[in-house]
Amino acid sequence: MKPIEIAKGIYDVGVNDWNIRDFHGYSTNQGTSYNAFLIIDEKIVLIDTVKKEFFNDLMENISQIVDPKRIDYVISNHTEMDHSGSLPLVMHRIGEEKPVYCSKMGYKNLSRHFQKKLNYHAVETGGELSLGKRTLTFLETRMLHWPDSMFTYLKEDKILFSSDAFGQHYAGYEKFDDQIGDSIMPHAKKYFANILLLYTKKILKLVEQVTELGLEFNMICPDHGIIWRKDPGKIISAYVEWSKQEPEKKAVVVFDTMWHSTEVMAKKIADGIAEEGVEVRPMHLRNCHRSDVMTEVMDARAVIVGSPTINNQLYPTVSDFLTYMKGLKPQNKIGAAFGSYGWSGESVKLINKELEEMKFDIIDSGIRIQYVPDKDDKDACFVLGRKIGKAIKE
Ligand code: FEO
Questions:
Q1: pLDDT digit string (tens) for 27-46?
Q2: Most buried residue, 99, 110, 248, 331, by most Cβ within 10 Å?
Q3: Spacing, Cα 52 to ligand 1 middle (Å)
């Protein structure tokens, strides 16, 4: 991918990672990009780097604009290695004496990632760096989503370099919201559901802080996916809405199955929910990736979980999903459990315990069915579905 001039003298010199399909356990079905930004002023600055494997591509992109050795400063908005992995190589290329600006936590965290001591300069919220005609301002955004995360704002151009925030895992030749349209929103939503959901209170506070500071944005440039230039307000509004965690009238029935009995139960429960006119998505955990299920869970009112009992335990994919969901701390959910069993049948009890720990409102003690559901069992599942549907509509 060639560098793109996103505004006069400002370039995206990042790279597309077209074929990555597993980003530390998140399914990236359309790859991702590692965006990095070069600003040419009296001083030349590089904002963020890329994954180590893409160092040569980054250098090639920068070289099409300027000799990399002419870079005066590097800004590291975030330590995670998809953005800092190339940092030691970049500094080796441009001169290790040159300053690397990062947050205080960035200083600590970069020092823990790279043994080579670089010329780190820790900055705080409100700190400024003059580039000549232009000025960068820093805004620490702790725990959005790492302790070191920060934003960098280019005052004169009103451009926010937002690190992971407002990003999407998407690789394409489209680079702006106006080139791709609304089809980017599901990617932004999935990114939020799987990376930021547990920090929604902090996000609402940050939006308040930004509003109080009176910051305006002509452009928001995240480190993944497309740049918001036509309507930066759209993604900010979406973040505010998602952060409220006000669920829609919708249910997700998430399950796995050994010999189809739990699957039959899932379908009957889903049928019952649909009978009440409520949107419902049955999702089989060996066909649906946990990160896709989580995207549906984010705005669902009910999460109904089914598992067979195997060796007195939950089915491993169900345990995996419950652990994943627990970490993301979804709010305002109702839940229920179901599952078939042969002789011991602990799964429903185990699921209920997990859902209680997640502060779900358990609306039914759940249904256990031995071996294969008969007509009465199927009817009981349908009735449970209707009960769930009614509760969602309340
Ligand atoms: Fe894209 Fe938190 O790294």
A1: 999 999 999 999 999 999 99
A2: 110
A3: 14
Confidence of residue 94 (pLDDT cuts 50, 70, 90): very high
**260 counts as catalytic:** no
Closest approach atom of ligand 1 to CA 224:
1
80 located within any domain: yes
Q: Which of 223, 244, 265 is the last residue of a domain?
A: 244
CA of 164 to the centre of ligand 1 (A): 5
Same domain for 340 and 201:
no
Catalytic entry in 17, 78, 101, 148: 78
Same domain, 24 and 115: yes
Provide the domain limits for residue 10: 4-244
Lining residues, ligand 1, CB within 6 Å: 78, 80, 82-83, 145-146, 164, 223-224
Q: Show which of 204, 225, 244 is a domain's final residue.
A: 244
**Are 67 and 101 contained in the same domain?**
yes
Rounded CA separation 298/252 (Å): 10
Active site annotation includes 315: no
The pLDDT of residue 135 is: 98
Whether 128 and 165 share a structural domain: yes
Burial of 81 (0-12, 13-18, 19+ CB in 10 A): middle
Q: Does the annotation count 289 as an active-site position?
A: no
Written as one string, the DSSP assignment of 256-302 is: --SSSHHHHHHHHHHHHHHHTT-EEEEEETTTS-HHHHHHHHHTEEE
Q: Is 204 exposed, middle or buried (0-12, 13-18, 19+ CB in 10 A)?
A: middle
Query: What's the mean pLDDT when you consider all of the chain?
Result: 97
pTM over cut 0.70: yes
Are residues 284 and 203 part of one domain? no
The protein residue whose alpha carbon is closest to atom 3 in ligand 1 is 80
Residues 281 and 363 in one domain: yes
* Tokens, residue 377: 């069992």
Residue 147, in any domain of the structure:
yes
Same domain, 235 and 310: no
Residue 187 designated active-site:
no
